[in-house]
Amino acid sequence: MDVSDRDYFDVHRGIDTDVIYIGRPMIGRDSGMSIIPLSRRINKSDGSFGGVVILGLQTEYFLEFYQKIDLGQNSLISLIGMDGFTRARQTNSESESSQDIRESNLWKNIQARPNGTVIANNYQDKDGLITSYRVMPDYPLVVAVGESIQVALADYEERKRLYIFGATLINLFILALCVLLVNRAKEQQAHKTQLERTLLELQKSNIKLVEQAQLLDLAHDYIMVSDLDNKIIYWNRGAESGYHLPVNEAIGQLKHSLLKTQFPISEEYIMDKLLTEGYWEGELNHTRKDGKQIVVCSYQTLNRDAAGNSVSILEINHDITEQKQLEADLARLDRLNLIGEMAAAIGHEIRNPLTAVRGYLQFFQGKKENAKYRTQYQMMVDELDRANGIISEFLSLAKNKAIELKSYNLNDIISALLPLLQAEAFRTGHEIQVDMGDAPNINLDEKEIRQLLLNLSRNGFEAMETGGRLTIETYTENDKVVLAVRDNGTGIPQGVLDKLGTPFLTTKDTGTGLGLPVCYRIAEHHNAKIVVAIGLEGTTFTVEFNHPA
């Protein structure tokens, strides 16, 4: 039979090599069927070209083999020659061979690198696929496996199993083919070793692709995927860390029940917006496993399958709790500034007439003819003194009040004030405990710190029932000097805690509501921060001063 017009004949006639040539699929002249020719050069005894040995593998064999493989939705397996034509190719919808892919992104990447991964963007590459490929060393073949991006994201574990299963089948096929070729060429052992090395490298390439899919776990945002019944089907490491919930405790749970979600609007409205517009953005309140409430900015999108059916919801939550707390602090400081401006404007004007009234009351109180009204005069003087004390606290909120910062030791100020605090504790029927730790000198206004300590201590005494204990501590933590005042009272109601520091807010019958605002103003003067913690054993006010002095 004359085969001198075949391309493989020209290849072997022109190149003196014993490498096996795998040609394009063609119609066999003897069988009349589509075959893939495998050929090798035969030399005469003098080394000149003597002919070729040909082995024809039926293309239909590969296509039938591929058709038995469940590729999944929008996937492919392909065996490609180094001439840019497929030897066999199977997608979920069609089987084909001899396809020219030289204009595809896949072929351009093969020319640039012997192995890698490419994301398709045209018809030849199958739009929407991630395709991994590898050029077989010593053989003019490229093995390519493609998988749908959407399927990969929707069901990560299933995709991994499909990749491993598909890669194993392809490797087994390559192994069988190479063994056959090695047997025909009487080089079985050398080619078997090379094939095993190729198998190992292809497996490593597939593992690398799986690792790339796990990059989603590196995001710091809290990312989850739930089905349309709100059951969690994916939970990234950011969500594990942020909510303190491991993935095995989250998967399969109803996300809103698990996180105790508080909605700014109805849950039905959010779901309706997702189903109609495919997107919703807003703020949600969640509760972590440790019971702490956090505020997140939530971005939710609806995932659809290839048919356009809604299948799942991708939710990305960004923790904005600290941002919200900062906004609340700024709002409180704005209110304090407003009160301070009011205090600076009218405080002195009110005090002047009160001083005159008090002087005349004391003058009339000393006259003999008013002796029978002395008790009433004294009551009026006491009430004026009380009003004057309120004005003094009111004036302490003045924004531009001058302070004198000097290097002081916080423990020395506490020691000097301790007798007065002990007397107040005895008067109110309480105990006081002082634990002064290592506290280096810092810049303080002594009078303001005394006022701060007195206000916090009096609040603690008034919050406890008879026999309570007030604890004052100092210590250094994270380059900050800390003053902590802790009582064992009943705590602060949530409604009051949210508004803490607001002027004139009080829960006491005789309180003015200016003690804590004064404390916050003093902390602001010293660039310090007040933190309130409520526990089972009472309330702790912590004042953190920057260090060093």
Q: Say how many strands there are.
A: 22
Secondary structure tally, helices: 16
Helix content: 40-55%
What structural class results from the helix and strand content?
Answer: alpha+beta
Q: Which value, in Å, is the CA radius of gyration?
A: 41 Å
> Cα distance, first to last residue?
101 Å
Low-confidence stretches: 122-126
Query: Which fold name is given in CATH as the topology of the largest domain?
Result: Beta-Lactamase
Strand content: 25-35%
Largest sheet: 6 strands, antiparallel
Strand order of the largest sheet: 7-6-5-10-9-8
CATH architecture of the largest domain: 2-Layer Sandwich
Task: Identify the CATH homologous superfamily of the largest domain.
Answer: PAS domain
Shape: rod-shaped
The whole-number mean of residue pLDDT values reads 79
CATH class of the largest domain: Alpha Beta
**What is the number of independent domains?**
4
Write the layout of secondary structure elements.
Layout: H1 7-14, E1 21-22, E2 26-27, E3 34-43, E4 49-58, H2 59-67, E5 76-81, E6 86-91, E7 95-96, H3 105-112, E8 115-119, E9 129-135, E10 141-148, H4 149-154, H5 156-185, H6 188-213, E11 222-226, E12 232-235, H7 237-243, H8 247-250, H9 255-258, H10 267-277, E13 279-287, E14 293-304, E15 310-319, H11 321-365, H12 374-395, E16 406-408, H13 410-428, E17 431-436, E18 442-444, H14 446-463, E19 469-477, E20 480-486, H15 494-497, H16 515-525, E21 529-535, E22 538-546
Parallel strand pairs: 17-19
Antiparallel strand pairs: 1-3, 2-3, 3-4, 5-6, 5-10, 6-7, 8-9, 9-10, 11-12, 11-15, 13-14, 14-15, 16-18, 19-20, 20-22, 21-22
Helix pairs in contact: 5-6, 11-12, 13-14, 14-16
